[in-house]
């Protein structure tokens, strides 16, 4: 597998300062990254076939796996690289800003309620929960986490992500500009 390579700024004029976009040349999946205020943030497109396979193998019926596979989902990484203390965040404070609206990413609890409404078996619900990016977390310097995050937008939508966190009582944010949901 080839390493993802940065796309030149000629093709992405609206990038936030310090952000970068890479493309995996085998899959075409894009990754948006930024490193600001001692915190690294990245979103990598998860392709519908990847999500279908992941959840079918964890007990999801095909129609239920399809709902999540087409929900504009990203592998999300947040890392406290060098912040001057504990980084604390809540996804409810993050903003997904598209042409239609600005709101937080789709909450994990909404997905869990959807799966229970559909009668999904409890082991599949648990597997889903453990694969998701945490709704809130605190990271000591050097700590990090990753997980799936659904923007809850239709395929092909473009949006900006504004991630917010606090360190020693002070608010910070990082932006990823012109993120693309998989078409």
Structure description:
The chain has 183 residues and is of the alpha+beta class. The chain has a single domain (5-180), classed as Immunoglobulin-like. It is 20% helix and 39% strand. The protein is built from 4 helices and 12 strands; from the N terminus they run ββββααββββααββββ. The strands form 2 sheets. Strands 1-2-3-4-5-10 form a 6-stranded antiparallel sheet, with no helix packed on it. Strands 6, 7, 8, 9, 11 and 12 form a 6-stranded antiparallel sheet that branches. Helix 3 packs antiparallel against helix 4 (122-131). The protein is globular, with a radius of gyration of 16 Å.
What is the CATH topology? Immunoglobulin-like
Q: What topology, given as strand order, has the largest sheet? A: 1-2-3-4-5-10
Low-confidence stretches: 1-16
Query: Percent helix among the residues?
Result: 10-25%
Question: How would you sum up the major sheet?
Answer: 6 strands, antiparallel
- Computed over alpha carbons, the radius of gyration is 16 Å
Order of helices and strands: EEEEHHEEEEHHEEEE
CATH class: Mainly Beta
First-to-last CA distance = 23 Å
Shape: globular
Mean pLDDT: 91
- The number of helical segments is 4
Under the CATH scheme, which architecture would be assigned?
Answer: Sandwich
Annotation, overall tally of beta strands: 12
């Amino acid at each position: 597998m080839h390493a993802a390579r940065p796309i030149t700024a000629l093709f992405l004029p609206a990038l936030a300062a310090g952000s970068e976009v890479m493309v995996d040349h085998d899959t075409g999946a894009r990754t948006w990254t930024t490193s600001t205020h001692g915190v690294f943030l990245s979103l990598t497109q998860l392709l519908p076939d990847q999500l279908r396979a992941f959840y079918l193998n964890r007990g999801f019926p095909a129609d239920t796996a399809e709902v999540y596979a087409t929900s504009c989902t990203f592998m999300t990484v947040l890392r406290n690289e060098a912040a001057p203390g504990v980084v604390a965040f809540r996804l409810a404070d993050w903003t997904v800003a598209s042409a239609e609206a600005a709101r937080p990413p789709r909450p994990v609890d909404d997905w869990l309620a959807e799966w229970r409404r559909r009668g999904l078996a409890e082991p599949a619900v648990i597997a889903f929960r453990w694969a998701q990016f945490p709704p809130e977390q605190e990271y000591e310097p050097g700590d990090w986490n990753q997980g799936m995050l659904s923007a809850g937008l239709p395929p092909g939508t473009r949006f900006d992500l504004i991630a917010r966190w606090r360190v020693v009582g002070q608010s910070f944010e990082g932006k990823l500009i012109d993120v693309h949901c998989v078409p």
